[in-house]
Amino acid sequence: MKKNLRNRVIAGTVGAALLLGPTAAFADTTPAPTTSAAPTTPAPTKTKASAADLAAYKTALAAYRVALKAWQDARKKAQADYKASLVAYRAAIKANQASRKQIEATFNSAVSAAKAAYDAATTGTVTAAARQAALNARVAAVAAATDARAAAITALPAIPTKLPAPTVAPKPVAPVRP
After folding, report:
1. Is pLDDT of 30 > 70?
2. What is the pTM of this model?
3. Contact 111, 69 (CB under 8 A)
């Protein structure tokens, strides 16, 4: 135990020395770049736009605003339609689940009634023939309940498919001011 602890301490010390020792040796000796007093590229000068350019910009801006409003309306309508379809989808799912619960409850009550009838017929001292007749009646009742459940599930309306999220055209690009 002492030897194992000693080996761990030695290994930790050697690892720390190897990790911390060479950091000064690998320091970067490259000098930092210096900035010159004169910029290499001249600052862009602002030129005044002509009246024709401004008029073209204003018409493009008005067209952009109309296109943006149309895009927003189309997007809102698509979202509203999608939300309405989701509400209808969720309602259909809930109705299907409620129907299935009712079908399962009916099936379970029929199976329970068959089991209760079997238990009542086989209580006390019963002959083998009477026990077999009660068992056959129970099996027939469970099979009839199973067939009724399968028919009821088949008669359920199909679950609608969930619609994908709407895809809207890309947002119009604003014109660039001259």
Report:
1. no
2. 0.57
3. no
